[in-house]
Design a protein that fits this description.
Strand order of the largest sheet: 6-5-4-3-10-9-8-7
Shape: elongated
Strand content: 5-15%
Number of helices: 9
Distance between the termini: 44 Å
Largest sheet: 8 strands, parallel
Number of domains: 1
Number of strands: 10
CATH superfamily: Methylmalonyl-CoA mutase
CATH topology: TIM Barrel
CATH class: Alpha Beta
Helix content: 25-40%
Length: 306
């Protein structure tokens, strides 16, 4: 039987010196740095002395679908179809004229998470929604209205450094004003850095003194990303959704349900496989212990760029 105690543990600095010696001057350690963003990178040569890593608690990610239509009747039909296929969350675009009785017909709001993307006139929408909840005697605890000062939207084409600054500022304002922050984050293709960004959001909020249950993070796939890398859309969807789950988003929203149901159905199936077969949602912080992701998380928590 192998006894690991037989091996002498190499000092971290000694290990780095050996790496330089093995490279024989052809390359240096800096040639292998992992790029987070422009002027922001970390060394991949890590050990247990490289970071102060601990498990970051977070929720089990729900499988969501963005219902892409302005027609309330069609939106309801598509939502019910998605729920039949195992959707745990729904995202709708709403405005001041939205009929919530028709939109939510046949949907039990205490059984599903709903995000409403406000298209202007936020207060009117909020009042109409409240009126519907009172009239229908439904619970609105699982409904998130994405508008107002509690919400920030981060787009996929923003750099991680810019997003990090926006996240930090938003969480600080929400903590000072004692409001529950909602972060809507369009997923980026840098798989490891995307997981680290999502983990860092929860740690930054905790460091401010915020309660874990007050923070909500919704991650969304943006169709604009597809066709940019030459990689099949299904593969791109899989690793984007996997980054959202490993980063412990409250909800991961896959391909939208527009005129064609197939992309949304496939996105739901991918999430069900990651949830139920890979069991990524069965453990807290599934990537804890990964040196590189831990170091990337530390960098994003501190906001340092190199």
């Amino acid at each position: 039987m192998l006894d690991w105690q037989e091996f002498t543990k190499v000092d971290h600095n000694e290990w780095l010196a050996r790496i330089d010696a093995d490279l024989k001057g052809v390359k240096t350690q800096n040639d292998f740095r992992y790029e987070i963003d422009q002027n922001w990178s970390v060394s991949p040569f890590l050990s247990d002395v490289s970071m102060d890593e601990e498990v970051i608690p977070g929720p089990s990610t729900q499988a969501g679908v963005y219902i892409l239509t302005d027609d309330v009747g069609k939106a309801n039909e598509r939502a019910l179809r998605c729920l039949e296929h195992g959707a745990q969350g729904l995202v709708f675009d709403v405005n001041a004229d939205t009929d919530f009785h028709e939109l939510f017909k046949g949907i039990y709001l205490d059984m599903v998470t709903v995000m409403l993307r406000s298209q202007g006139e936020h207060e009117t929408i909020k009042n109409r929604l409240q009126g519907y909840l009172v009239a229908s005697e439904q619970n609105g605890n699982n409904i998130y209205l994405a508008a107002g000062e509690n919400t920030v939207i981060l787009t996929w084409d923003e750099g991680f450094k810019s997003r990090n600054t926006a996240i930090r500022n938003h969480l600080q304002v929400c903590f000072i004003k004692n409001i529950r922050p909602l972060i809507i984050l369009q997923l980026k293709q840098n798989f490891l850095a995307q997981i680290a960004e999502l983990r860092a959001i929860r740690r930054i909020w905790k460091n401010l003194g915020g309660k874990a249950g007050d923070l909500s993070v919704f991650s969304m796939i943006t169709p604009s990303l597809f066709g940019m890398t030459g990689v099949h859309d299904l593969i791109v969807s899989t690793y984007l959704l996997m980054s959202a789950i490993c980063g412990m988003s409250d909800m991961a929203v896959g391909m939208p349900y527009g005129e064609d149901f197939e992309p949304a159905r496939l996105s739901l199936n991918i999430q069900h496989i990651l949830q139920q077969e890979s069991r990524l949602t069965q453990v807290t912080d599934p990537v804890a212990g990964s040196y590189l992701i831990g170091k990337l998380t530390d960098e994003m928590i501190s906001g340092n760029s190199q």
